[in-house]
Amino acid sequence: MSPDPSGRLPRAFTTPGNSSFLEFLASYSPALLPGNRILPAGNAPVAPHATTIVALTFDGGVVMAGDRRATMGTMIASRQMDKVFPADDYSVIGVAGTAGIAVELVRLFQLELEHYEKIEGALLSLDGKANRLATMLRSNLGLAMQGLTVIPLFAGYDLGRSAGRIFSYDITGGRYEEHEHHSVGSGAVFARGSLKKRWQPGLGQDDAVSIAVEALVDAADDDSATAGPDSAREIWPLVATVTSAGYRRIPDDALSGIVAALAATHQRSTGRGGDAS
Amino acid sequence: MSMPFYVSPEQLMKDRADYARKGIARGRSVVVLAFEDGILFATENASRALHKISEIYDRIAFAAVGKYNEFENLRVAGVRYADLRGYSYDRADVNARGLANAYAQTLGTVFTTEAKPLEVELVVAEVGDVPDDDQIYRLSYDGSVADERGHVVMGGHAESLAVVVEKEWAPGLGLKDALALAVRVLGTQPEGEARPLAAAQLEVALLDRARPRRAFRRLTGAALEDLLPGPR
C-alpha cells in the first residue's frame, strides 16, 4: 500500500489542505476510481439493472422508497437488492441503472461525506452534498455513453432550513432540485402518476410512507422490471425516512402492515375479495 | 572555510530526543482510560474547534499532545489511511494495529532522517466487542510503540500523573467513575490540592462499545456537565 521505501506514510497522505476523499484517491491511486476505467469500443454486455426509486417530502422530513428487484435483460437478477442507502446521518441516496456501478458510486459517496466530516469536524451542507454527487456523476459520463448508466436520487433533511429536500440528476451530472416528490428508474412514469394524485402539502410521516409504498405498487403493476411487495417470501420495499432525528429505515413488520392495508383498500375499491360489507 | 565539529551519533540522537521531549512536555496532558463500556479520552482544552482527540474510523480514535500542526497532519493522514484501506478491502479490515505501525514508521523515519523530529506523542485506540479486545497503542516522537493496558497519560507532567492513574485505575470502571478519575488526574498539580475543572475547560470524547457502527462520540455541553462530579 505504501510505495515509500522507508515504510512511512506516503507524502500524499500528509499533504494538507484537502478534505475530499475523491480528490485524494484521484491523486494517490486513480485506478481505484470507478470512472477512470478505459473501456474498449462496443456495447457493454448485459449486467444487472436496478429499477424504481420514489421520494417525497412530508412535514418535517423526506421519505425514499425503492423496490427490491434487479433485472438482467428479461431475467430477474435479484429479488432482494438494496437500492436505498443512508448517505450519512441526514441524507439518503437511491440508485437506478447499472447495479454494479451504482453500488460502487454509493459506497464512494458515503465515504466522501464521512471523510469530509472526519477531517473538517463538521457536516457538509445539504447543497454541498448534492453538488458532490453531481461531480461524481460527471466523471461517470464515459461509462454512461457505453450504456452503463447510473441515475441516483438524493434526498435529505436540510438542518439550516428545517425541511426535507429532494435532488434529481441526469447522466451528465446535472443537478435539479425537485419539489414535493420525484421518481427515477424504469417504473418512474407510473410511480409519478401515483405520487401526483396522492401527494398533498402537510403530509404526516406515516401517510408519506404509505404513499411511497403505494407508488411502488402502482409502478410494479405496469412495469415488469419493478417488483411489488412479495407477501409469500416476505420481501418488502426498502423505505427510509430522514427527519431532524436522522436517517431511519422503516422496519419490515410496519411495512407488511402498510402493504396489507393497501391491498384491502384496493380489494374494496374493485369490489373483489371476501369482505362482504 | 570552517570545519564542522564532530558530533557522535549518540549525542545527535540524544539532542533530538531532548528537543522533542521538551516540546511535548510544554502542553497540557491527555488521559486515555479504558472503562467497562469503551475507552474514554479527556484533556484540558479550552478550544471548541482545535481538537486533540478525534475520530479516525468506525472503532478507532486518535489523541495527541505536542505541536498542533504536526499532529493534525498525522491525524489527517490516519483518516486517509483508514478510509483508503476500508474502501479497498472492507470496513472490518481497518484496525488500530495497522495504523499504529504506519504512524510508528512515519515518526521513526522523521526522527532519524529529517532536520527536526516531530514534537508529538500519540495514542491510537480501538474499542473491541468486549473489554479484553480493546487496544491502546502509545506512540512516541522517535517511532517507538507501546501496547498499553487500560490507561495512558501523555504530555505535560505525564510521569507524575501516570502514578496517580496507576494507583486508582481498575478494570471495569463505569463511565462516571472513569470521567471523575480523568478529571482528577488532569487537575493534579505538583504541589497542593487538585484544581477543579469545569466542563468548558475540558475536551472529552469516548469510543462507545454499544454504538452500532461509528463508536466515536464527543461529550460536550449539558451531557458532559451531567456526568462530571458535582462541586466539592
The biggest sheet of chain A, with number of strands, parallel, antiparallel or mixed sense and barrel status, is:
8 strands, antiparallel
Structural class of chain A: alpha+beta
Q: Spatial order of the strands in the main sheet of chain B? A: 8-1-2-9-10
Relative helix content of chain A: 25-40%
What is the C-alpha radius of gyration of chain A, as a whole number of Å? 20 Å
Provide the low-confidence segments of chain A as ranges.
none
> Count of DSSP E strands of chain A?
13
Q: Could you give the order of the helices and strands of chain B? A: HEEEEHHEEEEHHEEH
Work out the largest interface and the residue count of each chain. Answer: A-B, 24 and 27 residues
**Residues in helices of chain B, as a percent range:** 25-40%
Instruction: Output the CATH homologous superfamily of chain A.
Output: Aminohydrolase, N-terminal nucleophile (Ntn) domain
Specify the structural class of chain B: alpha+beta
What does it look like?
The complex is a heterodimer of chains A (277) and B (232). Chain A is of the alpha+beta class and 277 residues long. Chain A has one domain (46-267): Glutamine Phosphoribosylpyrophosphate, subunit 1, domain 1, CATH 3.60.20.10. Chain A is 36% helix and 25% strand. Chain A has helices at 11-14, 21-28, 99-120, 126-138, 141-145, 188-198, 205-222, 252-270; strands spanning 49-50, 53-58, 61-66, 70-72, 75-78, 84-88, 91-98, 150-158, 163-169, 175-178, 181-184, 238-243, 246-249. In chain A, the strands form two sheets. In chain A, strands 1, 4, 5, 6, 7, 8, 9 and 10 form an eight-stranded antiparallel beta sheet that branches. In chain A, helix 3 crosses helix 4 (126-138) and helix 6 (188-198) runs antiparallel to helix 7. The model of chain A has no long low-confidence stretch (mean pLDDT 88). With 232 residues, chain B is of the alpha+beta class. Chain B has a single domain (25-222), classed as Glutamine Phosphoribosylpyrophosphate, subunit 1, domain 1, CATH 3.60.20.10. Helix content of chain B is 38%, strand content 24%. Chain B is built from six helices and ten strands. Chain B has helices spanning 9-26, 68-88, 96-113, 158-168, 175-187, 221-227; strands spanning 30-35, 38-44, 53-57, 60-66, 120-126, 135-139, 145-148, 151-154, 202-208, 216-219. In chain B, strand 6 (135-139) and strand 7 form a beta hairpin. The longest helix of chain B has 21 residues, at 68-88. Chain B is globular, with a radius of gyration of 18 Å. The mean pLDDT of chain B is 90.
